[in-house]
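Tokens in:
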């Protein structure tokens, strides 16, 4: 499902104009983004949780040449599905 499909579904389900649904979806995503940028964990019961994982710098290898290269430290968003979502997907 794309963001535009989510907006369309929301507008249909709660019978609001698409523009209003788009504002709601954008507000939710912006709030989630702001929380993650503040290194806060987001937990949505029954759905899952989002958190930031930090990775240390390390030695890597260029797969083409085999040459050793330095890989900088980085941060990445991690999602862990909640129990209810996992069970519904599994059935």
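Residues out:
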């Amino acid at each position: 499902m794309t963001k535009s499909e989510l907006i369309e579904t929301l507008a249909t389900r709660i019978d609001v104009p698409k523009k209003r649904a788009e504002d709601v979806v954008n507000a939710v995503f912006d709030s989630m983004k702001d929380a993650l940028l503040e290194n806060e964990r987001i937990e949505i019961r029954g759905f899952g949780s989002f958190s930031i994982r930090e990775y240390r710098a390390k030695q890597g290898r260029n797969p083409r040449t085999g040459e050793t290269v330095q890989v900088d430290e980085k941060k990445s968003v991690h999602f862990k599905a909640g129990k209810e979502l996992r069970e519904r997907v599994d059935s």
